[in-house]
């Protein structure tokens, strides 16, 4: 490595660390982060995911991060703190990339692979977020490190199986990764090794792989939640197929992409480095299968392959005619893309922190709060489903029902998240008609009409308020003298005009539709 290349490497690594430190505290929170953290909180609250709290992911990530969450207690900036464990997982993946890159090529390629991966915008941004994919990728990369570390004896195969079993208990996408490994191994065995290599002890891999998923299954079965686990993690996700009409396109092109992959594998079989060949084929197999059969494809689905992409890209770049110019161009392009996709590193975390400030003031522990996916983290939701894209698509097809109005009445819930397009139609209409804006959240209530009429959807304690405080007048024929328990149905207030009826505890806790809270960052 020349002096110029070494300086470029050091400068790129330093810039990457600086940008990551900046992004950790400023890059916007994804709604998936809040949903994952809500599920982790449910463990600390004595709730059982799948049975008591909806989750359509595998359980290990939330189970492992719950004790960390418990250490911090209820705080509005909790997502900033829970991004710190993701930094450790980021380090594991970058380390694994370096180790594997050095084994497949040399130290020069390994160093550039690690740095380019760390700077690659999809990996950079997704690895910041509190999400299952980061633990999944870390288990995968450690498994690859173990796999390439020596002879494939019983001990090594058991450990690889154990790590991938942990990955499966973190994300069911691991099943596709394992299938990819076996297909790639078969192609490598037939095309490159010429049937001369001895088959590794696969039964030890199977034993190791089964341990953690079996432990998770026993845990949920023992607590009467086995059927809930199967439905949420498998049946619910599988039902998404019924909501997509374009899947035939991927199925139709699969035979052609598979044939192209097999031709390339045959074409480049001669004098191939076995491990390089194996991982190149594995990368191709995973991509072809994902494009052909995966329902929702996003950058995070490729997180496990990004380290391999980085290794192959670094190997190619270091063979360029002008290595420094080539690498410098790649670095500049990635920093520019990162600047764009990270919204110029502006602080876009404040909106969630201010919402959490209001959630912790407007509700007390044990009180229910209706949000879309678990965005308010520390409060149990009256409705079971998290209303993400998958749920809303199934509601639209009639596979599941939007029961938010009934749920909020059956389990009296007086606080809800603000309006937005993520709400299912019935839920949105009910909340718009029966809740008042408090700033970042809403509280049960209505603006009183000019004729004094209003309705109560959720029975409970309410107050009549105007701009200066509580109103004066007559409520349902008797003098209004303070908060009153109101039944569901029609009511009438005769008195000051422009008044609103609202959930009394929200008013006592300092909130009013006349003086919205937390609107300024």
Report the radius of gyration as a whole number of Å: 27 Å
- What share of residues is helical? 55-70%
Quickly give the structural class.
Answer: alpha+beta
Q: What is the arithmetic mean of pLDDT?
A: 93
Q: Can you characterise this structure?
A:
- By secondary structure, the protein is α+β, with helices and mostly antiparallel strands.
- It is 56% helix and 9% strand.
- It is built from 21 helices and 11 strands.
- Strands 1, 2, 3, 5, 6, 9 and 11 form a 7-stranded antiparallel β-sheet that branches.
- Helix 1 packs parallel to helix 6, helix 1 (3-26) packs parallel to helix 16 (323-341) and helix 13 runs antiparallel to helix 14 (274-293).
- The longest helix is centred in the N-terminal third of the chain and has 24 residues, at 3-26.
- It starts with a helix and ends in a 13-residue tail after the last helix.
Please sum up the structure shown.
The chain is of the alpha+beta class. 56% of the residues lie in helices and 9% in strands.
């Amino acid at each position: 490595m020349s002096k110029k290349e070494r300086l470029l490497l050091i400068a790129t690594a330093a810039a990457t660390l600086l940008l990551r430190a900046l992004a950790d505290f400023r890059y916007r929170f994804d709604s998936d982060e809040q949903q994952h953290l809500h599920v982790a909180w449910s463990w600390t609250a004595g709730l059982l995911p799948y049975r008591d709290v909806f989750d359509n992911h595998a359980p290990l990530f939330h189970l492992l991060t719950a004790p960390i969450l418990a250490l911090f207690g209820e705080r509005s900036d909790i997502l900033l703190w829970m991004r710190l464990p993701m930094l450790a997982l980021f380090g594991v993946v970058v380390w694994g990339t370096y180790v594997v890159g050095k084994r497949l090529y040399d130290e020069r390629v390994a160093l550039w692979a690690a740095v380019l991966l760390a700077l690659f915008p999809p990996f950079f941004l997704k690895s910041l977020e509190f999400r299952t994919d980061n633990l999944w990728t870390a288990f995968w990369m450690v498994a690859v490190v173990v796999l390439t570390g020596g002879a494939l004896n019983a001990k090594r195969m058991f450990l690889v199986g154990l790590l991938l079993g942990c990955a499966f208990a973190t994300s069911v996408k691991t099943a596709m990764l394992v299938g990819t490994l076996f297909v790639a191994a078969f192609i490598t065995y037939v095309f490159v090794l010429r049937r001369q290599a001895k088959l590794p002890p696969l039964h030890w891999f199977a034993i190791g792989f089964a341990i953690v998923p079996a432990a998770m299954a026993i845990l949920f079965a023992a607590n009467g939640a086995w059927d809930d686990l199967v439905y949420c993690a498998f049946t619910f996700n599988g039902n998404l197929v019924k909501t997509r009409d374009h899947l035939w396109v991927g199925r139709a092109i699969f035979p052609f992409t598979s044939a192209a992959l097999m031709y390339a594998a045959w074409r480049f079989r001669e004098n191939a480095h076995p491990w390089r060949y194996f991982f190149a084929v594995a990368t191709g197999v995973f991509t072809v299968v994902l494009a052909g059969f995966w329902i929702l494809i996003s950058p995070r689905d490729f997180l496990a392959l990004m380290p391999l992409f980085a290794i192959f890209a670094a190997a190619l770049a270091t063979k360029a005619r002008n290595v420094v110019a080539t690498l410098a161009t790649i670095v500049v392009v990635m920093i520019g893309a990162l600047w764009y996709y990270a919204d110029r590193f502006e602080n876009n975390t404040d909106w969630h922190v201010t919402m959490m400030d209001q959630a912790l003031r407007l509700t007390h522990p044990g009180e229910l709060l209706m949000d879309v996916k678990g965005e308010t983290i520390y409060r149990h939701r009256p409705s079971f489903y998290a209303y993400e894209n998958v749920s809303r698509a199934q509601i639209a097809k009639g596979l599941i029902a939007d029961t938010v109005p009934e749920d909020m009445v059956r389990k009296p819930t007086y606080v809800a998240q603000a309006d937005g397009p993520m709400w299912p139609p019935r839920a949105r209409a009910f909340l718009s008609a029966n809740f008042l804006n408090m700033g970042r959240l809403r509280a049960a209530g209505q603006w009183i009409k000019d004729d004094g009429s209003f309705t109560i959807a959720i029975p409970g304690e309410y107050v009549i308020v105007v701009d200066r405080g509580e109103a004066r007048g007559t409520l349902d024929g008797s003098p209004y003298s303070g908060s009153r328990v109101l039944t569901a149905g029609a009511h009438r207030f005769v008195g000051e005009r422009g008044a609103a009826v609202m959930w009394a505890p929200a008013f006592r806790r300092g909130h009013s539709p006349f003086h919205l809270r937390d609107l300024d960052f």
